[in-house]
UniProtKB/TrEMBL annotation:
Native organism: Panicum hallii var. hallii
Residue ranges annotated for the Amidase domain, each copy included: 51-484
Gene3D superfamilies assigned: Amidase signature (AS) domain
Entry protein name: Amidase domain-containing protein
Endpoints of the signal sequence: 1-26
PANTHER family noted in UniProt: AMIDASE (PTHR42678), OS04G0183500 PROTEIN (PTHR42678:SF26)
Length: 505
C-alpha cells in the first residue's frame, strides 16, 4: 500500500516543482492567446475561474491609471465556474472556440444582466435593455464569459469629445505613453486588450473607431463588412456604417472572436441577411495561413505613406519589402479614384439625420430609460454641464442632429454622392487593378472604408522613438475578410511586431 502512495506523492512533488519552475506546466497568463487558453483548459493547467481572477486583478491594479474598463460584471466568476463545470461534464469536449474565455464588451453593446449599457453617458445610466445585443447573445451561446464593459468615447465620438473620454469612464490612457491619446471611440477595448486586462474584447466602428485605437495600442482590430455582425442592441450612430468587431492581441484571437459573432440576426435582418452570403463555410480560421501573402495583389495608395516622418516611413517600406518577399505583388503609387473633397460634408449631413432616427429608435425600445429621445439627451447634458464637461466639448453635433427632420432631398442626394464615391473610388481602383487589398498606414483610409461598408484589419507595425505604436491596415471590398485575414496573419507572423507595454509617462 505504501509504495504506490509514495509514487503519487513523488509525482505530485515533481509536478509542483515543474509548476514553480514554470517549465512546461504553469500557465502563462501574460499575452495568453485563445488557443493557449483552450490548451490550458484541456491539459488541466488552467481554469476559467483562475483566468477571470487574473484579469480581475489586472483590472483592479491597472484601471485606476488606464481607465479602460467602465464596469466589471458582478456575475463573471459565477459564469467562469459554470464554464469550468460544463467543460468537466463534457469530458473536455467543449474546450474550444470562446468557451470559458473572458470577453470585455465596449459599453455601447447591450447585455441583459447586471451591467449597464450607456455608451459612456450618464444619461443612460440605469436604462434597462430588452435583451442582449445580437453579438452578446452569440458570445453567450459560444460559452464565453462576460467580464464587463469597456470605456468608450461618449456617444461614440458623436459629441466630438476627447478621443478617449467618457462622462462615466473618464479619460482612457494609452499604456505605452501615458501622454498620448489612445484614440477612440473604442479606446477602452483597445487599451484593455493590449494591457492584458481581458482575453479578448469587442469594439464598434462607424468611421475609424476600431482601426484607430487598434493601431495606437498595438493590437489587431477587425472592422467587419457592415452587416456581417449584428448591430441589434448596440447604441447606434448610423446603421449604414456601424459595425461590431474584435480587438485582440493576435490575428488568430481576433478571428476566433469573429467566428463567434458573425451571422444572421432577425433583429438586424436586412443588413445581416445581405451580408450572410459572405460568411465562408467552415468559418474564418481556415484563412490563418502562414503563406497568406503569396500571390496577393496589394495596392499601395499614393500619398498615404509619404506624409509620415522618416522613421515610420522606413519601417513601412521594410514591411512592404517583407510582403513582397512573402510572395505578394505590390502595385505601388496607385491613386484612389474619385474626387473626395466633399466627403466629410456629405457624410456629416447624412449621419446627422441617421443618428437622430436610429438613436431615438434605440431609446424607445428600452424597457426603462431616464431619456427617451435625442432631445432629452441634449436636455440631460444641459442639466449636468459639469459631469458632461459641456464647456470643454459642447454638444454641437447632437444639436445639429436634433435639427434634422428625417431623410429628405438633401440626405438622399448625400447618399447618392457617397455611393458614387464608393463605386467610383475604392471599388473602381480594386477592380481595375484586380487587387486583393489596399494597404495604408494607421487610420488614414477609415472614411473610405466607412462609407462603403467595407472591411479592414489593423495589425501592429512598429513603435515611434517615443514608444508610440503605429499600425498597418489591409482594406478591401465587402466580403473580402477571408483574403484580408490571410494577408494580415501572414504579415503578423512574418513581422511579430507587438510587444506588451512598459508604462511610460
Ligand atoms: C498546458 O498548456 C499550456 C499552454 O496553454 C502550457 O503553457 C503548459 O505548459 C501546459 N501544461 C502541461 C502540464 O502540459
Ligand atoms: C449600474 O449602474 C448602477 C447605477 O449607477 C450602479 O448602482 C450599478 O453598480 C451599475 N452596475 C454595475 C455592474 O456596475
Ligand atoms: C472636386 O470637387 C470640388 C467640389 O466638391 C470641386 O470644387 C473641385 O474642383 C473638384 N476637383 C476636381 C479635380 O475635379
Amino acid at each position: 500500500m505504501a509504495q504506490p502512495r509514495l509514487q503519487v506523492l513523488a509525482a505530485a512533488v515533481a509536478l509542483t516543482l515543474a509548476l514553480v519552475a514554470g517549465g512546461g506546466g504553469a500557465f502563462e497568463f501574460q499575452e495568453a492567446t485563445v488557443d493557449a487558453i483552450q490548451l490550458g483548459f484541456r491539459n488541466g493547467s488552467l481554469t476559467s475561474a483562475a483566468l477571470v481572477q487574473f484579469y480581475l486583478d489586472r483590472i483592479a491594479r491597472l484601471n485606476p491609471l488606464l481607465r479602460a474598463v467602465i464596469e466589471v460584471n458582478p456575475d463573471t466568476l459565477a459564469q467562469a465556474a459554470r464554464a469550468d463545470a460544463e467543460r468537466s461534464a463534457s469530458g473536455g469536449r467543449c474546450a474550444a472556440g470562446l468557451h470559458g474565455v473572458p470577453v470585455l464588451l465596449k459599453d455601447n453593446i447591450a447585455t441583459r444582466d447586471r451591467l449597464n449599457t450607456t455608451a459612456g453617458s450618464l444619461a443612460l445610466l440605469g436604462s434597462v435593455v430588452r435583451r442582449d445585443a445580437g453579438v452578446a447573445a452569440r458570445l453567450r451561446r459560444a460559452g464565453a464569459v462576460i467580464l464587463g464593459k469597456a470605456n468608450p468615447t461618449e456617444w461614440s465620438n458623436f459629441r466630438q469629445v476627447d478621443p478617449g473620454w467618457s462622462a462615466r469612464g473618464g479619460q482612457t490612457q494609452n499604456p505605452y505613453v501615458l501622454s498620448v491619446t489612445p484614440c477612440g471611440s473604442s479606446a477602452g477595448p483597445g487599451v484593455a486588450a493590449e494591457a492584458n486586462m481581458a482575453a479578448v474584447t469587442l469594439g464598434s466602428e462607424t468611421a475609424g473607431s476600431i482601426i484607430c485605437p487598434s493601431v495606437l495600442n498595438s493590437v489587431v482590430g477587425i472592422k467587419p463588412t457592415v452587416g456581417l455582425t449584428s448591430r441589434s442592441g448596440v447604441i447606434p450612430i448610423t446603421p449604414r456604417q456601424d459595425t461590431i468587431g474584435p480587438m485582440c492581441r493576435t490575428v488568430s484571437d481576433a478571428v476566433h472572436v469573429l467566428d463567434a459573432i458573425v451571422g444572421y440576426d432577425e433583429l438586424d435582418a436586412e443588413a445581416t441577411g445581405a451580408a450572410s452570403k459572405y460568411i465562408p463555410h467552415g468559418g474564418y480560421r481556415q484563412f490563418l495561413r502562414i503563406d497568406g501573402l503569396r500571390g496577393k495583389r496589394i495596392g499601395v495608395l499614393r500619398g498615404f505613406f509619404e506624409q509620415y516622418a522618416p522613421e515610420p516611413r522606413r519601417v513601412y517600406e521594410k514591411h512592404l519589402s517583407t510582403m513582397r518577399h512573402h510572395g505578394a505583388i505590390l502595385i505601388k503609387d496607385l491613386d484612389l479614384a474619385g474626387n473626395w473633397t466633399d466627403l466629410g460634408d456629405q457624410m456629416g449631413l447624412l449621419m446627422n439625420a441617421e443618428f437622430k432616427l436610429s438613436l431615438n429608435a434605440y431609446l424607445k425600445d428600452l424597457l426603462y430609460s431616464p431619456v427617451r429621445s435625442l432631445a432629452q439627451v441634449i436636455a440631460f447634458n444641459n442639466a449636468h454641464p459639469k459631469e458632461e464637461r459641456l464647456k470643454d466639448f459642447g454638444q454641437a453635433n447632437l444639436i445639429a442632429a436634433e435639427k434634422t427632420t428625417g431623410i429628405g432631398a438633401a440626405e438622399r442626394a448625400a447618399l447618392r454622392r457617397l455611393n458614387e464615391l464608393s463605386t467610383g473610388g475604392l471599388e473602381k481602383t480594386v477592380k481595375e487593378h484586380r487587387l486583393d487589398a489596399v494597404v495604408v498606414a494607421n487610420n488614414d483610409i477609415s472614411a473610405v472604408l466607412a462609407i462603403g461598408g467595407y472591411p479592414g484589419i489593423a495589425v501592429p507595425a512598429g513603435y515611434s522613438e517615443e514608444g508610440v505604436p503605429f499600425g498597418i491596415v489591409f482594406g478591401g471590398l465587402r466580403g473580402y475578410e477571408p483574403r484580408l485575414i490571410e494577408m494580415a496573419y501572414a504579415f503578423e507572423q512574418a513581422t511579430k511586431v507587438r510587444r506588451p507595454p512598459a508604462f511610460r509617462h
